[in-house]
Amino acid sequence: MPDGAHRSGFVALAGAPNAGKSTLLNRLLGQKVAAVSPRPQTTRNRILGVLTGEGFQIALLDTPGIHRPRPGLARAMVETALGALREGDVAALVVDATRRGVEEEDEALSAVLAARGRKRALLLNKIDRARRPALLPLIDAFRARGHFDLVYPLSALTGENAEGLAPALAALLPEGPELFPPETLTDQDERKIVAELIREQVFRQTGEEIPYGVAVEIEQFDEGRREGPRPLVRIQATLHAVRTSHKGILIGKGGQKLKAIGTAARREIERLLGCPVFLGLNVRVEEGWTVSDAAIRRFGYAGAGRGGRGSRPPRSGDRGGRAG
Ligand SMILES: Nc1nc2c(ncn2[C@@H]2O[C@H](COP(=O)(O)OP(=O)(O)OP(=O)(O)O)[C@@H](O)[C@H]2O)c(=O)[nH]1
Ligand SMILES: [Mg+2]
């Protein structure tokens, strides 16, 4: 920082589904820790990424897209995003700059503006695809609805103008020491990232409502041979489908679909782990899990902030998660 003070704090990346929050997190960290897909509502958890630079440390929180949710998994996801906004020193609204204007019901904008006492940043993403003349009116439209301490256009995908973002965000943070050891990259352990990389391929390779009903569970993560002369990590994972009819689609004719998901996921996992991987996938049906509080918790999608426990009694639709 120019004034020589060390700055540190939390920056919550919030925005509508598909705005590019997770792409931005991966870009800023220089490593893929969050799943990215062309479909909205890919991210289900808060993901911490730590960016340690010259004179600053930024704790970035990637969050699920904020939208008007129905009960169940979607509601849990939006609550996770709102919780992260309350924790951040900076509430950063990530906006798809190719959009025409501020939509009347921009839930993400309202949530960011409601984060009182926080600094606010407007990050206009996807400028590689936006029409330049349309950017200023778009910025004006957002500014007319609330104050932003920083307005920053960039492309998380191509990296255009991305370099200056970290120092610009750091300038909004309070003075303070590092919050994490400088080598920290994320709070997601390898197993968790692996599960997300598999789920990402489900999002990329299946259509309609299929990916929204899938949770991925790592059953086995055997790294006994990771350091050996012929390194190999063996991973066994289960895709939990919300409906019996989805199971067949996930497996595909002659197992083709599951094979394609597994092959693409394995490539990403090998890049992450830096060694060859055996990936075994199987599909199980966990009927109705997306509307079961117990199952949502079991798959790790609830209680992202404090006090996420016990606030609601079990409901009759709750099957308690012993299916399959
Ligand atoms: N052209 C372009 N596409 C982008 C950019 N950033 C992200 N995308 C694409 O936008 C889509 C959504 O990206 P994500 O990073 O998954 O978006 P998100 O905001 O995390 O979405 P949710 O997790 O669903 O809320 C993907 O297809 C990305 O490749 C960008 O700067 N330019
Ligand atoms: Mg995301």
What is the fold's blueprint, element by element?
Blueprint: E1 7-15, H1 21-29, E2 47-53, E3 56-62, H2 73-87, E4 90-96, H3 107-113, E5 119-125, H4 132-143, E6 150-153, H5 165-170, H6 190-205, E7 214-225, E8 232-241, H7 244-251, H8 256-273, E9 277-285, H9 293-298
Parallel strand pairs: 1-3, 1-4, 4-5, 5-6, 8-9
Antiparallel strand pairs: 2-3, 7-8
Compact summary:
This protein is an alpha/beta fold and 324 residues long. The protein has nine helices and nine strands.
Structural class: alpha/beta
State the total count of DSSP E strands.
9
Write out the CATH superfamily name of the largest domain: P-loop containing nucleotide triphosphate hydrolases
| Helix-strand sequence | EHEEHEHEHEHHEEHHEH
How many whole angstroms does the radius of gyration measure?
A: 20 Å
- Tell me the domain tally: 2
Number of helices: 9
Poorly predicted tracts of residues: 304-324
Give the overall silhouette: globular
CATH class of the largest domain: Alpha Beta
Query: What is the mean pLDDT?
Result: 91
Walk me through what this model shows.
The chain is α/β, with parallel strands linked by helices. The chain folds into 2 domains: 7-170, 3-Layer(aba) Sandwich (Rossmann fold), CATH 3.40.50.300; 190-298, 2-Layer Sandwich (GMP Synthetase, Chain A, domain 3), CATH 3.30.300. Helix content is 30%, strand content 22%. The strands form 2 sheets. A 6-stranded mixed β-sheet has the order 2-3-1-4-5-6, with helices on both faces. Helix 4 links the parallel strand 5 (119-125) and strand 6 (150-153). Helix 6 packs antiparallel against helix 8 (256-273). The radius of gyration is 20 Å and the shape is globular. The model is unreliable at 304-324 (pLDDT under 50). The structure holds guanosine-5'-triphosphate (GTP) and magnesium ion. Residues 21-22, 42-43 line the site of magnesium ion. Guanosine-5'-triphosphate binds next to helix 1.
